[in-house]
């Protein structure tokens, strides 16, 4: 008889243990189920790639982009430069010059006008005033008349005569090859100084002109607006040895494809790497019509550069003062 009484108790205990076991199993299964979901939420690589290839306007993003790491930014920036080097293998300063004096004068004259206009003006200027001594002693009114087509001709006359006098009085009639000396010359700022250093003396420098500023912001290399801060930010992304060629590549691209108002996005060789793709015309055929064919060739051209930039052997001439 006692065994009969103990049977229901055993059954109840077994039932209770089974229920507890089932409850524990259910909790465990729920915990296992939730774990993968939490992992999915934190996956970020796709997002970063989408931003690089997406169409979000550059002005909506600050530097550095929130979903692009510093390492990713450096890699993307350097890849863009490599792609542009393939497209513009003969990128060079588009001002005509034969020596460092002509280069510094032409660069000062290029402010607020085109290189083409400067190149049309400087032959007469240098024919009449071939040396710093000649220009330093020039009649300002005669120089103004020559420089009139360049715009702001009075201010530019004052600058080129002033810098010529400074060269004669302070540097023995020679253009100095150091940044701290160049920026002391009237009309010469860091931008002009780096053009001269990079192309007349072979010393690396970043030329932050309007094209350069526009493109590096579109590409989200930096969100800075001050030229000196832009120079510092971009310089930190590249080895110093790349700075001069990088400047040429970016400026050439800005003049030929990535225009201020209507960039030719559909004809752009770096479109997959550009966060601002879509700001301009994306249809390839329509975009081709927006390309600007300037001196030195057009996007994709791999022919020889203009004769003026070839040496006696028919090869691209090195920068003045290099080697």
UniProtKB/TrEMBL annotation:
Signal peptide: none annotated. It comes from the Bacteria. [4Fe-4S] cluster binds at residues 258, 265, 268, 274. GO terms for molecular function: 4 iron, 4 sulfur cluster binding; class I DNA-(apurinic or apyrimidinic site) endonuclease activity; DNA binding; DNA N-glycosylase activity; metal ion binding. It is an enzyme of class 4 (lyase). It holds the Pfam family EndIII_4Fe-2S. DNA repair enzyme that has both DNA N-glycosylase activity and AP-lyase activity. The DNA N-glycosylase activity releases various damaged pyrimidines from DNA by cleaving the N-glycosidic bond, leaving an AP (apurinic/apyrimidinic) site. The AP-lyase activity cleaves the phosphodiester bond 3' to the AP site by a beta-elimination, leaving a 3'-terminal unsaturated sugar and a product with a terminal 5'-phosphate. Belongs to the Nth/MutY family. This is Endonuclease III. It comes from Streptomyces violarus.
């Amino acid at each position: 008889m006692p065994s009969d009484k103990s049977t229901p108790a055993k059954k109840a205990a077994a039932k209770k243990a089974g229920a507890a076991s089932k409850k524990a199993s259910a909790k465990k299964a729920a915990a296992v189920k939730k774990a993968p979901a939490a992992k999915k939420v934190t996956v970020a690589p796709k997002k970063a790639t989408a931003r690089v290839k997406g169409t979000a306007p550059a002005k909506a993003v600050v530097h550095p982009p929130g979903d692009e790491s510093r390492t990713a930014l450096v890699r993307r920036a350097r890849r863009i430069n490599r792609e542009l080097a393939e497209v513009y293998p003969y990128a060079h300063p588009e001002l005509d010059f034969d020596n460092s004096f002509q280069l510094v004068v032409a660069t000062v004259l290029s402010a607020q006008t085109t290189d083409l206009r400067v190149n049309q003006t400087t032959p007469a200027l240098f024919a009449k005033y071939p040396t710093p001594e000649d220009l330093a002693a020039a009649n300002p009114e005669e120089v103004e008349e020559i420089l009139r087509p360049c715009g702001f001709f009075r201010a530019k006359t004052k600058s080129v005569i002033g810098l010529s006098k400074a060269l004669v009085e302070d540097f023995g009639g020679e253009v100095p090859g150091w940044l701290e000396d160049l920026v002391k010359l009237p009309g010469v700022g860091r931008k002009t100084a780096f053009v001269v250093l990079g192309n007349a003396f072979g010393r690396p420098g970043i030329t932050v002109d309007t094209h350069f500023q526009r493109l590096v912001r579109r590409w989200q290399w930096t969100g800075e607006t001050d030229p000196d801060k832009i120079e510092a930010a971009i310089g930190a992304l590249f080895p110093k040895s790349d700075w001069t060629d990088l400047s040429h590549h970016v400026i050439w691209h800005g003049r030929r494809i990535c225009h201020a108002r209507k960039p030719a996005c559909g004809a752009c060789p770096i479109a997959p790497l550009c966060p601002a793709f879509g700001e301009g015309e994306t249809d390839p055929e329509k975009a081709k019509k927006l390309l600007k064919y300037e001196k030195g060739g057009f996007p994709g051209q791999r022919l020889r550069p203009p004769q003026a930039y070839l040496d006696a052997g028919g090869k691209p001439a090195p920068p003045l003062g290099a080697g």
